[in-house]
Write a structure and sequence with these properties.
Helices cover 38% and strands 13% of the residues. The strands form 3 sheets. A 5-stranded mixed β-sheet has the order 4-3-5-8-7, with helices on both faces. It has a two-stranded antiparallel ribbon with strand order 1-2. The chain is an alpha/beta fold. Strand 1 and strand 2 form a beta hairpin. It has one domain (3-332). Helix 4 packs across helix 10 (243-258).
Length: 341
């Protein structure tokens, strides 16, 4: 299995599992574990990676250190090996098996591309996603070569699906529908992602305040270890296709999505809203954003700021910005080639 296929499949696992794991009971959404063992006859397993090889590459990226909150006991110092084992130990054999089964269900993507741009949409974000695609067509794609674009369907209607042309990389760029790029910024951003391994959006809130206790237990962390961790946003992430990114960040993140005790441990209706104006731990939950922040904190302690790009200031989040771009493209294609502007 190619490394990019692993990354692409892992990014989709969260949406696939959460959509599959829901059942409606008296108009309430209940999340439960789904047994995937009946799919084990699908051929081709994930290639194993040795711990020592992963530790060697991860060690090149980080130097040890920690920050603390005054009200909490001083944290004990840990080695890089202990940090890495702490992340990998969150993945149970059952969840790893389920992830392996799910990843084998995804077709092999085209190869040879430097960059893969990935987003997802549903009916309630359909026009917001069209505005993102319009922005990519104007400010990103004309400036680069050797790229591909993937749009995951998370719940489009039949008519919407006909409009969306679902088309796959050394760098994977995840974008929420609200992401917008300034012109002429994509090249330095891609180069920066290669240097850093990942590029994240900065954050200001405490992960300890935005994480449920059940997820803390799964990640083997507590309020004191997560209180000083700043919550980087998961609306825009760039991943360089390196072993430590695949195996120590994306894979535990995807396994967390498979587990019923990690990314979405209960009905999101009760936990989505976070009042940032009150200081209270475990008051809400940020799902995929919570999980990846804890994984990075376990690996890099107070050095997660090394993933903040200077070029990110030229990437905006415009929630609610919509555009009927597919209608515009259809009207343009209806004009005879010789008469198009």
């Amino acid at each position: 299995m190619s490394h990019m296929r692993q990354m692409d499949a892992m990014m989709a696992v969260d949406h696939t599992v959460q959509k599959a794991a829901r059942k409606i009971t008296n108009r309430r959404v209940i999340y439960e574990y789904i047994d995937l063992s009946h799919l084990t006859n699908v051929p081709e397993e994930i290639e194993p990676v040795s711990f020592n090889a992963l530790l060697k590459e991860y060690s090149r990226k980080v130097r040890d250190g920690a920050c603390v909150e005054p009200s909490c006991p001083a944290p004990q110092s840990t080695t890089l090996e202990e940090n890495l084992r702490s992340v990998l130990s969150t993945m149970s054999e059952r969840n790893l098996r389920d992830l392996d089964i799910l990843m084998r269900r995804f077709p092999e993507p085209p190869t040879g591309k430097r960059t893969m741009f990935v987003t997802a949409t549903s009916s309630n974000h359909f026009y917001e996603s069209q505005a993102l695609i319009r922005n990519l067509h104007r400010n990103v794609f004309p400036l680069i070569n050797n790229y591909t674009f993937v749009l995951y369907d998370l719940g489009l209607t039949a008519s919407e699906r006909k409009q969306a042309n679902l088309h796959k990389a050394d760098i994977l760029v995840w974008m929420d529908a609200s992401v917008r790029f300034s012109n002429n910024i994509i090249k330095p951003l891609l180069d920066d992602a290669e240097r850093r391994g990942m590029v994240l959006a900065s954050g200001t809130n405490s992960v300890g305040q935005h994480t449920l206790q059940v997820t803390m237990n799964y990640m083997k962390e507590d309020v004191c270890t997560l209180a000083p961790v700043l919550e980087h946003e998961a609306t825009f992430i760039m991943f360089h296709n390196k072993q430590w990114v695949r195996e120590a960040v994306v894979k535990p993140w995807a396994v967390c999505a498979v587990s019923d005790k990690c990314m979405c441990p209960r009905d999101p209706e009760y936990d989505t809203y976070c009042n940032v104006h009150i200081h209270k731990y475990k008051k809400c939950h940020r799902y995929d954003q919570t999980a990846i922040n804890i994984i990075l904190a376990k690996l890099f302690r107070d050095h997660t700021s090394s993933f903040l790009s200077l070029y990110y200031d030229y990437v905006s989040l415009l929630r609610g910005d919509t555009y009927r771009y597919f209608d515009e493209l259809e009207e343009w294609q209806a004009v005879p080639a010789g008469r198009r502007p």
